[in-house]
Amino acid sequence: MSTVTSKDGTTIAFDTYGDGRPLIMIDGATGYPAINPLNAETGRLLADEFRTYAYDRRGRGNSTDTAPYAIEREIEDIAALVDHAGGGPAVLFGWSSGGVLALDAAASGLVPVSHVVTFEPPFVVDDVRPPLPADYVERLDAANAAGRPGDAVDLFMTAAAGMPPEAVTGLHESDFWPVMLGIAPTLAYDGRIMGTTMSGNPLPTDRWASIDVPVLVMHGIDTWPTLIPGPRALAELLPSATLKPVPGENHATTPEVLAPALRDFVRGA
Fold it and tell me: Which residue, 194, 221, 240, sits at the end of a domain?
């Protein structure tokens, strides 16, 4: 594992796979390479054509953190990785809310970007599921500040991920629960990234209006039905976007599906 130093002094840890065009893999809420092997496996499949970066977002895994949080700091983290890769332009891929961060990075003008790929950005743009509570981020911050990370995880799992409370309670006894407690402070980061896009209202027309590079919007064919309207709305909003349903379910797909889709998109196939 290697590291770069972001603009605010935060250490960002990463692994790389292969050689070629830089590809930055951006995890969504709760994810990082130690618990999500998909980024590394995808990087190995693309090693002949891409140099894939699988990194720990700030506050997770081997990366450090620096207060106060702002989405701009995470964009600077991505910029530091692209600079390490030789300055780009880079392909940005994001799972879930990580895809929204990829869009923000491309729109910022701070990161040289050639292509953006999102997988199931979890927008709530209609009434197929309840919107996030208006005070969602504030409640996450309060729980963590009071030393109750479990309450923050419970809120994320029920309000954002849509799990029934009894299923979340069952997670408390799993081996995964301590991992979730460790990244609980970062859940509010993704809440801020999502902003108003889980309110049940149409997506903002101006947030990504400056993006002029090709955008691929993916969702699993057999994913949860509540996760399909958001990607469709994004593809309709962005003039440079293409919608691509792929084999996948439960908010994920496989490296064997993802790698060729990325390769074909960047090649213009």
Answer: 194
